[in-house]
Amino acid sequence: MSDNIYKSIELTGSSTTSIEDAINKAIAKASETIQDLQWFEVTSTRGHIENGKVAHWQVSLKVGFKLA
After folding, report:
1. Whole-prediction pTM
2. Largest CB tally within 10 Å, which of 16, 38, 57, 68?
C-alpha cells in the first residue's frame, strides 16, 4: 500500500428536491474541475420553509481528493 496525500475542500450544494440531490449537484460540479475525488462528509444541512413546507435544501460538505 503506497502512502497518499489528500486535500479537502468545502462545498455547498442546493436543491429544491432533496438533500441527496444537493449533495450530488455539488459533487458533480466539483468533478468538472477536480480530478480523483475520493470521499465526502456532510458537515451541515439547512433548509428554507415556505407555507409550512420545505422549499429548499442546502447541504455543506467536505470533499477529499488525492494529490498527484
Report:
1. 0.87
2. 57
Please compute Rg for the chain using Cα positions.
14
pLDDT of residue 2: 74
Cα atoms in the 13 Å half-sphere on the side-chain side of 56: 6
Q: What is the pLDDT of residues 39-57, one digit of tens each?
A: 999 999 999 999 999 999 9
Phi, psi at 13, each rounded to 5°? -105, 155
- Provide the grid cell at 21: 440531490
CA distance 54 to 39: 28
Q: List beta partners, residue 60.
A: 12, 44
Distance between CA 6 and CA 17 in Å, rounded?
A: 31
